[in-house]
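Researcher: Please translate sequence to structure tokens.
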Amino acid sequence: MVRPIRTASWSAGLLAVLVAVVVASAALGAVRIEPLVVVMAILNRVVVPSGLTFGSSTLPVLGVGITAPTLQYSTVFAFDVPATHQIIVTDIRLPRIALAATVGFSLAAAGTVMQGFFRNPLADPSIIGVSSGAAAGAVAAIAFPALIPFGGLHLSAFVGALGTAFLVYSIATEGGRTPVATLLLAGIAIQAFLGAMISYMLVHSGDDLRQAVIWMMGHLSNSTWSDVRFALPVTLVGVAVLLTYTREMNVLLLGEEDAHHLGVDVERTKLLLLALASIVTAAGVAVAGVIGFVGLVVPHIMRLLVGPDHRILLPTSALAGASFLVATDTIARLGTLSFPFGLEVSTPIVPVGIITAALGAPFFLFLLTRREVHSV
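Model: Translation complete:
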């Protein structure tokens, strides 16, 4: 009974932090908006029907007008928000914030699973080449769009990520067993090969070089609600399924032989964890590019706070990752940092991947000097 209460308490606290970070991020920008106005603008777009009205409309089909039924609703919330502020919050800032939260959620959750899977504190979502596969697919779609039959940068990156994960798993599996060490080495080799292919495509990308390089740095600029609709369902379903395997993750920390004696189907569980973590990673990387250190540092911080039990660690890491990426992306897009006493520091507007690396690497080194990075 203690564990569910502890999990709920941590999750509720981190969810409150995420809401506060989202509101603060939406309030900041070239046009500063009061947090209360931000909350009202967001609530105005919440679809909670309070009344339904049936009607009809005429739709042109092959030049012929066809009458079709329509359904109109009135929402519960109708706060008086200036039209300009409503557009800025819900149409410009909120899609980017929602995408940052989704990507941070996915990368931190996948990083937690990978560190437990490999029993290695240095593991992150890109360890088996998923990020490199996504980058190869995206760069190919940017530099050589005619060669991508299914089209679309997001879909190309997603397919490249999953294809790479499947290739690495196939290479590492022999006789129905997939040794973790072989899987890791295969991932490193495939990453090196894909790195060479990406470099070759960048050299021949011509005028598309800048777009490809910015994508590989990890960015959330020009985010739209369609990007969120692409990544969010995959992320939520993938993490929800991973939460049902938290007991198996805990048992695997004891070693594969002990896990087998405790009734865990080791190879099947490893395949499912690897597949789900790869899918969740691919969903995030496909829409935001390669964003480093979220899946490495955030699980470490949460492990120090809540312990190694994945039943608590996985949901809390995912929520913390969402808050972390929203906060770092706010720094990336603002161009200025405000401090008390009126002090402001100008910062270049850069892709968020640069900010996460600039903050994550020193913090990780700090943990190393404090000897706070342990085996999982």
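Researcher: Any highlights?
Model: The two ends are 25 Å apart (CA to CA).
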